[in-house]
Amino acid sequence: MATSGGENLMSEIIVEVKDASLAYRRTRHRVSSLKQTAIDTIKKRMAYEEFFALKGVSMEIKRGETVAVIGRNGAGKSTLLKVVARVLPPTTGRVVVRGAVAPMIELGAGFNPELTGAENMLLYGTLLGRTPKEMRGRIESIAEWAGLTEHLDIPVRAYSSGMVARLAFATATDNVPDLLLIDEVLSVGDEDFQERSKARTETLMNSGCAVLLVTHDLNTVRTMATRAIYLDHGAPKASGKPEEVIEQYLADLHR
Amino acid sequence: MQVYDSDVKQSPIISQVQGVWEKRGLLKLLVSRDLTVRYKRSVIGIWWSLLNPLFTTFVMFWVFNTVFKARMPDGTSFLPYLLSGVLLMTLFNQGLTMAADAIATGAGVLTKVYVRPEIFAFSATISAAINFFFGLIPLTLVLAISHKWPGWSFPLAIIVVGCMTLFTTGLGLMLAIAYVNFDDSRSLIQIFLLALQYMTPVFYPISVLGPHTKRVIELNPLTSYLSVFRDVFGNNYVASLNNWLMMGFSSIAMFCLGFYVFQRAWPRVVAKI
Predict the structure, then answer these.
(1) What is the DSSP letter of B150?
(2) Which of A1, A87, B93, B97 is such that its CA lies 20 to 30 A from the CA of A188?
(3) How far apart are CA B62 and CA B247, in angstroms?
(4) Contact status, residue A202 vs residue A224, Cβ threshold 8 Å
């Protein structure tokens, strides 16, 4: 391990994914009601198929690196993110993550409209992995950055959608984790806030943490990623320098 | 530093309970969120959540006492018997559906961030338990009106609530899987809960039943919770050792079963979303 003494901290491996696959059984016809399931079971029509959302993915992310995952819709990009976030255990293979993980998720998903801004901030930050105590000490400064200091004690129900997004973004990006998971770089709020949130995301990405970035925006990959992985039907088809990986992806896309 | 290694397999139940305990800060926040939303912000406060059980009791009392002119065979008063039954069934229904709902509605967060979903289920059943304790106030009043005070054993009601919390958490975890997987499970569970309510001696004493029916009713684990609760709190029923054993065993068994099933099924649910 690279944490001790002489070795460079930057070479510390935060994420190790070794030959990870994720398979699950799914029904051929998308059944979503108990009634249909019961009828199908009686008529013996239940046909399952093994579906591989990920097939033999391996990668490493060191501290300071940004790895971008690209690929078509349903290629397994978000699944890979879930596996690294430890929400999904891999069916085979191994995933090791060292340190604190912070996801930048869809904004405001965990908000309750009846609670005040401060209460929501506390709950949201705790859901994202921080302790309530840490959060209590940060509420003031998070609110200040988001420009919501005066609105902290009113229920979020009375917020505009832009205010909700600002609150969520400010909370999610308040601390520097060891691993940052990004599912599409977020740009929220009015033009001024979009600029500031983009700048903050970039600062966070350059602050020395490892970043796993899933995106369709190839320009972001070109400018921000140190490496890229191209997933096709769950399997890695190319990985390496962003420019080369993007080239292959585009070649496949236009074929 | 926290290290996650997917190869390290933990013993299911113990590690899960540990995981929940480590996150008790979050658990506390979730419970206080539930209670804040329910109590602080509404004008009538706690009485609002008691309105449902109290009104149900009132209607049932009117139907059985006035319309059917039913009397308890041993001459004790019917109202505390009925109210204690309704309150405990409300604890069960609320805990169960709120636990499943908490996970189903939290799925947006739970599928992206590593948070043990069990914590959501627990927060719901604990909130339901706190509601239940508020319900003991009107129950005490009703007991007093019928010239009976809660027996000296009333603190033991905590054991009943604890067992019920484990029972509904386990069952709620399994129901949550159904909620997320099947759109029609919400309406089906309502029918099931109604049937279960009639199969629990909420508004009739077990002693009036024939031997066969009685056996069926006693197989229902909820019967034992109700018997023990009426025994320790209202002194208006005598619970047997069997009731205690059934209550303790069923709560632990359901809790373990729920955790086990949930742990196996949840990854599949997340993969599909």
Answers:
(1) P
(2) A87
(3) 31
(4) yes
Question: Model's pTM, two decimal places?
Answer: 0.88
Each residue of A228-249: pLDDT tens digit?
999 999 999 999 999 999 999 9
**Nearest residue on chain B to A54, judged by CA atoms?**
B271
Amino acid identity for residue B127 in this structure: S
- A150-199 pLDDT per residue, tens: 999 999 999 988 888 889 888 988 888 899 998 876 667 778 888 888 88
Give yes or no for a contact between B135 and B106, defined as CB atoms under 8 angstroms apart.
no
Burial (CB count <10 Å: 0-12, 13-18, 19+), residue B253 = middle
Residue with tokens 């709902």: B101
Question: Which DSSP state fits B159?
Answer: H
Maximal CA-CA distance, chain A: 67
Q: Strand A48-62 and strand A210-214: pairing?
A: unpaired
Is A147 part of the contact surface with chain B (CB cutoff 8 Å)?
no
Rounded distance, CA B79 to CA B72, Å?
10
Whether this model's ipTM surpasses 0.85 comes out as no
Determine contact: A115 vs chain B, CB below 8 A.
Answer: yes
| Residues of chain B with C-beta less than 8 angstroms from the C-beta of A110 | 106, 108-109
> What CATH number should be reported for the domain whose range is A9-100+213-253?
3.40.50.300
Structure tokens at B206: 């077990």
The tokens for B155 are 């603190």
